[in-house]
Design brief:
mainly alpha; globular; about 170 residues; two-stranded antiparallel ribbon; 3-stranded antiparallel β-sheet
Length: about 170
């Protein structure tokens, strides 16, 4: 039996996919080139939440969580995502050809649900850059700092899909 957290994150991810299918013109069509996974070259950052890291760890094993050291997602191998079925909400929502406002609104509603999930399960909520989140095998239990609403809103407004300009989140 899966923990409730895993089922609830899975449901959130299904709803993201449904929103993207419902609005294909706004969602954009991904070329699956993997360029957006090279955060440094693409000049953006990916932010994730504790439930998303827990979801990934549940499916690939906490011992298989890889650190990110070179600005490229460690799960991108030869331009392809090796954890595609378990990828983060920002990876699901972002598309270079998608409508930025649509992506921003979908990101905002997704983060609201993920934060609510944390609150309901008494799990600390933190909106963290991917390299920070991957720095430990169980970031949810190690990071107890809660992000402020202002910081979350600013980072979402700065970009779509949970991505922000490199090095700049106020």
């Amino acid at each position: 039996m899966k923990p409730p957290l895993i089922d609830q994150v899975h449901q959130i991810y299904k709803e993201i996919e449904s929103s993207l299918r419902t609005s294909p013109d706004l969602a954009g069509k991904c070329n699956c080139c993997g360029k957006c996974c090279d955060f440094k070259s693409f000049d953006h950052l990916l932010y994730v939440t504790p439930p998303e890291i827990e979801y990934l760890a549940h499916h690939i094993g906490a011992e298989n969580i890889k650190p990110m050291s070179d600005g490229i997602c460690p799960y991108n191998e030869k331009g392809k995502c090796t954890v595609y079925d378990y990828r983060f909400s920002g990876c699901r929502i972002f598309c270079c050809q998608g409508d930025k406002e649509f992506q921003s609104q979908l990101t905002e509603s997704t983060l609201t649900r993920l934060k609510y999930l944390c609150e309901n399960l008494a799990m600390p909520y933190k909106y963290m850059e991917l390299s920070t989140a991957l720095s430990g095998s169980r970031p949810c239990t190690q990071n107890t700092e809660r992000s402020t609403s202002r910081r979350r809103r600013l980072s979402i407004r700065q970009s779509a899909g949970g991505y922000g300009p490199a090095g700049r989140i106020d």
